[in-house]
Amino acid sequence: MPISFKSQGFKEGYTPIVGPENSPLQYISFATLQLRKSSAPYTGETGGNEVVLDLFEGSADVTVVFEGKTLEYKKIGGRKSIFDGRPTLVCLPPQTKYTVKALSDALDIGVSLGPSPSGGKPVVIGPDDNITRLTGKGNYQRQVHLGTVETGKTMRLMVGETIGQQGAWSSYPPHKHDESGGGEVPQEEVYYYKLQPKQGFAIQVLYDNPGKPGGRDDAYIVRDGDTMALDHGYHPVACAPGYQVGYLWVLYAPSDVYGSWSDDPKHAWVKEAVG
User: Fold this and answer.
1) Which of 38, 71, 74, 191 has its CA 20 to 30 A from that of 271?
2) 119-161 pLDDT, tens per residue?
3) Quick one: what percent of the chain has pLDDT higher than 90?
4) What rounded mean pLDDT belongs to the chain?
5) pTM score above 0.70
6) Rounded distance, CA 155 to CA 198, Å?
7) Contact criterion met (CB below 8 Å) for 159 and 248
8) CA–CA separation, 90 vs 77, rounded Å?
């Protein structure tokens, strides 16, 4: 089944991209919700999933109906792009109805979904609530907006953003999270890429340890608005010189276990050697 999904551009409305029905993923689904100020409000329901809305661009009013109560989140978001500050995320538990009204000429939202038990509550994680870490060094240093991580606001999904430097690497040294043991916890993942300027490109590398049945040793050209389903393997990213890549990442696990991965032992030495 495919793991690479090309951009459909700005497509007004709710657009499913990847999920268990069209990829090797078992749990995560990802879609975009793109509206204009003139668009009718969009109304959706979470069903048996928890849902995280990441406002990439633009501002919105979001109305939520949960357990018979109506919550209104007014004028949230407001970024020009993911390269323009920390994200705003709306976390929605199962059995929740939500309505999104665009307040800007172009509203671009990433919609992450995954099956979840009940027990969560609707909440907005605003820019000031995000934990941001500077990770790596040299030409693989990047900003990581941890989003839902370490907040206790989601049950299964971990959603955040990575913002790389121009012409640099990220998700490096190569790491994976597809086996149990040694601090590693199996977690499938989705990357949704943004490029600055938009005509740029990056390279998604995806490989497994030698001898792994069904293993990969591949590289993919990714452009603004592309998506990758990362079900197994090491997955570093490199960006073309003059351009900057940022990406939404969505992880799924039984609990908030961000950081439970293994670096490729052949390349872990660069943590100490690269200045």
Assistant:
1) 191
2) 999 999 999 999 999 999 999 999 999 999 999 999 999 999 9
3) 94
4) 96
5) yes
6) 34
7) yes
8) 10
Domain ranges of the chain: 4-273
Rg (CA), the chain: 18
260, amino acid identity: S
Token digits of residue 241: 């010189």
Helices (H), the chain: 270-273
Per CATH, which fold does 4-273 belong to? Jelly Rolls (2.60.120)
- What's the DSSP call for residue 165? P
The arithmetic mean of pLDDT across residues 40-48, rounded, is 98
Q: CA 13 from chain center: how many Å?
A: 19
Give the span between the Cα atoms of 57 and 59, in whole angstroms.
7
- Res 201: pLDDT: 98
Q: For residues 261-270, give the mean pLDDT.
A: 94
Expressed in angstroms, the distance from the first to the final Cα of the chain is 40
Burial (CB count <10 Å: 0-12, 13-18, 19+), residue 187: buried
Tokens of 67: 């357990």
